[in-house]
Design brief:
Layout: H1 8-26, E1 32-38, E2 48-56, E3 62-68, E4 71-76, E5 81-85, E6 91-96, E7 102-108, E8 113-118, E9 123-127, E10 133-138, E11 149-154, E12 160-164, E13 170-174, E14 180-185, E15 194-198, E16 203-208, E17 213-217, E18 223-228, E19 234-240, E20 243-248, E21 253-259
Antiparallel strand pairs: 1-2, 1-18, 2-21, 3-4, 4-5, 5-6, 7-8, 8-9, 9-10, 11-12, 12-13, 13-14, 15-16, 16-17, 17-18, 19-20, 20-21
């Protein structure tokens, strides 16, 4: 009898599961993840993360994640679609977005609209309810094909932070009018795959796909604390109180982590 051939999707998920098991062993029992940079607390202990749960997504290539009034939304660059999902990863609704190669998603509270980053053109768009684009913002040096915009996040002042993936990795800070206030080259990671603002501690956080790491950044965008993550290709990041929500592109999975 000829050997049974595994589908590409099944092979990818099996490989991802092996990576998860290996990484979990390396970061400690019970899913605890020790910081590998910084994180020392007043009592001398190290800040830790703990994997609370993970759920399979019925979404191909989820590339970013945002929490809006308690509801979770994921964007897929494969289908250029924004999905509303439950906390357990079930799809509730979806909206097709005009354009292709959408790698970053955020929500603009001032204008009550989603914004997306188009990696191929280096443009940032506000999205209407029907998925059409408007009010583009274009940044220099972010339209270089597969190394462009990968992350978007608003801080408490309404400033927009934009992550350029690599060659080199950069973080831009924009004011309400889309003017660049700061343009910072990033040296602590080989790439950036997502940004999110954590209102609980008022810090910007960044993901790196290639490093499989989460970085808490200070006001100068240097590392405050960093953790290696038990997943492959982390590409979307959001915060809900003390919970960290991350989507893996290759695993098509939603992770929920807890901060110690």
């Amino acid at each position: 009898m000829a050997p049974m051939l595994l589908s590409v999707t099944r092979m990818r998920r099996l490989c991802s599961a092996l990576v998860i098991l290996t990484t979990s062993c390396a970061t400690g029992g019970g899913g605890e993840i020790e910081a590998f940079v910084g994180g020392n607390k007043a009592d001398g202990s190290s800040a830790r993360l703990k994997t609370v749960d993970r759920f399979q997504l019925d979404i191909e290539e989820p590339s970013d994640l945002v929490l809006v009034d308690g509801d979770l939304y994921v964007i897929s660059d494969k289908h250029s679609r924004i999905y509303e999902i439950t906390r357990k990863g079930r799809v509730k609704d979806s909206t097709d977005v005009e354009g292709t190669d959408m790698e970053a998603l955020a929500f603009d509270n001032k204008h009550d609209a989603f914004i997306v980053g188009d990696e191929s053109t280096g443009k940032i768009w506000r999205i209407d309810d029907d998925g059409s684009r408007r009010d583009p913002i274009e940044l220099d040096d972010t339209d270089d094909g597969n190394s462009g915009i990968e992350g978007l996040a608003f801080d408490e002042h309404g400033h927009l932070f934009v992550a350029k993936e690599k060659d080199p990795a950069r973080i831009y800070e924009l004011d309400d009018d889309g003017n660049v206030l700061h343009d910072t080259k990033i040296d602590f990671a080989s790439d950036l795959s997502a940004l999110a603002w954590n209102p609980a501690d008022e810090h910007l956080y960044a993901l790196s796909d290639e490093e499989q790491a989460l970085y808490k950044l200070d006001k100068d965008l240097d590392i405050d604390t960093a953790w290696r993550l038990p997943m492959t290709h982390p590409e979307g990041l959001a915060f809900d109180g003390d919970r960290i929500l991350i989507v893996s592109d290759s695993e098509e999975r939603l992770y929920e982590l807890e901060q110690d």
